[in-house]
Each structure stands twice: as structure tokens, then as C-alpha cells.
Amino acid sequence: MEKDEVTHRSEETGETDEESRATDEEKDDKVDDDSDEIKIFVDGEEDTITKNKAYFPEWNFDHVRPWVPLRRDDAYDNDQILQVAGHDLVMLEKANGFRTHGSVESGAFEAAKRIKNINPKVKVLFYLNAMIHYPHYEADLTFKKDQWAMRDPKTNDFYLWNKRFVSYDHRNLEFREWWITRALDMLQHDEIDGIFIDAIIKTAAVSNSIDAPDHDKAYIETANDLRARLPEGKLLIGNALRANAPKGAGGEGNIKHLKYLDGSYLENWDRSDEGIAKTIRLMRTALKAGRLIMFTSTPFSGYPLAKRYTEQQKEILATLKTMTADDKYPYIEQFIEFPLGVFLLAVEEFAYFSYHDSVDASPRTGNAAFDCNRYVEITRQLGNPLGPYEEEGEFIFTREFVNLKVWVDVQNKVGKLTVKEVRDEL
């Protein structure tokens, strides 16, 4: 994922969070928003994904439903596993467990077993990147770099992401089978409930840098093939929806990818005021179509790039770097109301929320505060919505639930969550 979290340099991938985010497709924050209606399907087109949601994560309006993205390159300690098991959904990020178990596949599987032993209801997703060839996977042993990696047709050099990692090329049919098989092999484990496909936006964005005609369409063919071969009851989620996604096979805001996905992860939703407003609409469109949403946020939501940090944000970052994970929770709680407010404007059945300062749980490199259940804003009673959100002014949004009033000022990055008073019945 191109993280919107506090900066750390990853020992596994050698990249900072900002380097991971500042990719070619995101240099232009302009949002193309020429229509009030965003559609997944054209009129008369059939939704072929099953309406049976029995295999979706647990969900109700009792409280905000939490999910967590996480990685640790060795092995999670018992307290961390216990914390993860308190969420409805976990995505085991790239670089999980390879130092202890020899590969990311084995590391993720071992972590999934430990999580399921505590809470069998948790849905566990295995990470698979659509475009970037990350190290430490067992499948790397059979990756044919010379034949399969994307090259710049003008120079014949490998096309590199972040000047480091070779790129996949979905126009190669032999590569496609290798990539799909990686996913299907992991789904043979009962403890792995689904696949998370990252960097979908890059399947189209690569054409901004080199001549790669119809690569986005080739990726969709790969994804459709994986969907067709997906075992019954397994989930396919992607990092798809993005307000500033380039126009292409993905359609408006990348919404067309939900034709083959059970749902979408949401990151970098805070690039602009217009982008935030459009993100809310994208989420509601997805949820109305029966797709799930995994919304991610941090104390820096609203200021996604280091170059945009205010002096206050820089002070927050410096303070967090001096703290233990446990000390971070009461400190970053003061910043939760804006991102949670944005999420609550759109929330419907199967929408999940995550709030963390990092996804790196290693005490050496990240020391993440990732447990959503440490925040009363997430665990307290919510209740059913009393209607959809309303726009009360320019970029001012409100929504009301049985137990909560939500007010969000997008331009000033302010959210207010007001708990309603409980009145005794006479």
C-alpha cells in the first residue's frame, strides 16, 4: 500500500512511506468530477458477484467496525496477536514473518493460524501486489525476471518502481498464470480468507511513464481470471477506489474494478477537498452495490505528504518518534474525529475503519499503534443511521445516528462527533 502513515524506512523493502506513496500516478491531485452519479455497471449490465455475504466479516451498527493492516518481519508477540484478533478483518501486509519463517507466505500463514486460534471469526487477507515485485516471497524462486518483468520499450531497461523494484507486465500470459497461482496457493489454507490486491492504480499509471498500451486492460483480464478461479467462500479485495485515479479501464474513480472485487481498500483519500467529497460518494456507491469498504486513516489524515505538513504536524511526527506504542494511543486519539467523521458520512453495511500511526509492528522499525479497540470513538455505541449525510454548506457535511451526531468541515480538516444524551423513559 502507498501508506498515509508516519514516516519510517522499511528494512524489508528499503523504502520510506513517502517514497512508497509519491508514485507517478499521484503527482497530479486533480479530481475529475464532472458527474454526480458514479456507476459500477452500465444500464442493463449484470453484477455477477454472488449476493451471499455469509463469508463477509462480522458487521452491525452497534459500533464502528474495526479492521487492521499490519506487517512484522519476524514474529508477532502474543500481545500483538491478541490485539489483532479483536478486529473484524486483518490484512497481513507485505514482508510478514520472513525473518522467522523463511518467506512471506509462511510468515503470513503462521500469523493467521495464531489469530484464528484466538478468534475464528476474524477474516485474514493475504497481500499480493498487482505491479511491484517485492522480495522475500517463496514464489520469487520461480519468477522469470528476464522474460516477465516490464521493460521500457525505448531503452529495453527494466521499468523500476521507486528506482528499486521491477514491475510486472500483465500482457505476458505466462506471467499471469504465475501471479494467479500465487493467490490460489495461499487460498488453499483454511486460515487465509481472501486475497488483497495492492497497487491496482499502477496498472494504468505505468503508461504515464513508458509506452505500455492497454496494460490496464490486460490487468483486468488477469483479475477476471483470478475471480473466475477463486474458491467458493474466499474474498477478493483490492486497493482500487481512488478519487484522483487516471481515466482508463478502471473508469471513474477506479469504480469499474468493483466488477470483479468483493470490496475496496481506501487510502490517499485526503489529497484535496474535492477528492474527499468524491471519496465519500465512491464509498456509498460501492456499499450500495453490496461491496465492502476498508477505510484507512492516521493522525495525519488531511496532510498526506511530508511536504504538506504544517509546523504542528511536524511537531506531532517528532513527538511520536519518541513514544512507545502504548504511549501513542492517548496521544493520537485527539486526531481521530476528522477521519472517523469522513468515514461515518458514508458508512453502511460492510464498511470497516482503521486508525493507526504505522502498519509496521516491529519494535525495531515501526512500533505501530494499530489497535482500534483502544479508542472509545470506535467501541462506543453508534446505532443505525437516521438518514444519509447532508451537505450544509461548502464542504460542510453532517449525518446523524441513533447515538451520535457527525459534523465534518472538509476544508479545515475538522470533525466533531457528538454523543447524544440518553433520556430516561417516563
TrEMBL record:
Q: Which SUPFAM superfamilies match?
A: (Trans)glycosidases
Q: Which InterPro entries match?
A: GH (IPR017853), GHL15 (IPR029455)
Superkingdom is: Eukaryota
The taxonomic lineage of its organism, from the top, reads: Eukaryota, Sar, Stramenopiles, Ochrophyta, Bacillariophyta
Q: What is this protein called?
A: Glycoside-hydrolase family GH114 TIM-barrel domain-containing protein
Region (Disordered), start-end ranges: 1-37
Query: Pfam family example for this protein?
Result: GHL15
Q: What spans are recorded as compositionally biased (Basic and acidic residues)?
A: 1-12, 19-30
